[in-house]
Amino acid sequence: MNSRDEVVLALTDDLEPDDVTTGGQFNPRTRRMALAGHFFFRTMAIVIYFFCTWFTSSFVVPFVLVLISLSLDFWFVKNISGRILVGLRWSSYTDDEGRTCWRFDSRPALPEPSDDVTLSRRELSLRAAQTQAARLFWIGLVSAPLVWGVFLLASIFSLHLRWALVCAIALSMSAANVYGFIRCRLSGSNQNAATTLLSGLHTKVARQMFTDFWSNLTKRPENTSGLASNPPGSVNASNANATFGV
């Protein structure tokens, strides 16, 4: 089964009135709620997995509760916290030909400060808060599959195969989000790098063509030998006379 990427670099959101004045970025209250949800559901799944045996000896009830927490975490991170905290969103679907198609949405980044671009104090504080929120997002995103991987190994070595199944499901769901967001993050940077590379390559080729054309135009023909000025396939008269003994 082949797969192809469908990169969309413009992520549109339903912005609140306060967000319009910040260039499409979410306000601090929205980011705090997204961070809380980003860590709440995955922490809830781990807590249920750890302490469920204190309250019940059944396997079905903790299994269902963990799956519900994992499903809510997967959906929230994929559609809410990733969009708000880092401006990324990914999705995949299968087309009519049976190929898996990936769609990556990315919000344009804030302008970088330079000699020509001066940021206000509010914009600098917004950038700092956004950087911190993005760092927490990636920490929470990557740490979840690591934790469930440790739980999976512990369940296998202790021969608790039923709980190993729970850990395997949790690991696959959290790893799928990590894979999707990493591909979403790299697709935009790779596209920008490819655009820059092609632009530089086109400039270099055009400059080389112009240099070769100008050097051929200004180069003076050298008539140091008779053969050099003759057309291809012609015979020089002196060579012909020497051949026939004239």
Chart the SSEs and their pairings.
Blueprint: E1 3-8, H1 17-20, H2 28-51, H3 60-86, E2 88-94, E3 100-106, H4 121-157, H5 161-218, H6 226-229, H7 237-244
Parallel strand pairs: 1-3
Antiparallel strand pairs: 2-3
Helix pairs in contact: 2-3, 2-4, 3-4, 3-5, 4-5
Task: Walk me through the structure.
By secondary structure, the protein is mainly alpha-helical. The chain has one domain. Helices cover 66% and strands 8% of the residues. It contains seven helices and three strands. It has helices at 17-20, 28-51, 60-86, 121-157, 161-218, 226-229, 237-244, and strands spanning 3-8, 88-94, 100-106. The protein has a three-stranded mixed sheet with strand order 1-3-2. Strand 2 and strand 3 (100-106) form a beta hairpin. Helix 3 (60-86) packs parallel to helix 5 (161-218). The radius of gyration is 32 Å and the shape is globular. The N and C termini lie far apart (79 Å). Keywords: Membrane, Transmembrane, Transmembrane helix. Pfam families: DUF846 (PF05832). The chain crosses the membrane at residues 57-77, 136-157, 163-182. It comes from Paragonimus heterotremus. It is found in: Membrane.
Distance between the termini: 79 Å
Structural class: mainly alpha
Low-confidence stretches: 12-24, 190-203, 223-235, 240-246
Residues in helices, as a percent range? 55-70%
Give me the strand/helix succession: EHHHEEHHHH
Number of helices: 7
Transmembrane segments: 57-77, 136-157, 163-182
Family: Belongs to the TVP23 family.
GO cellular component, one term: Golgi membrane
InterPro entries: TVP23-like (IPR008564)
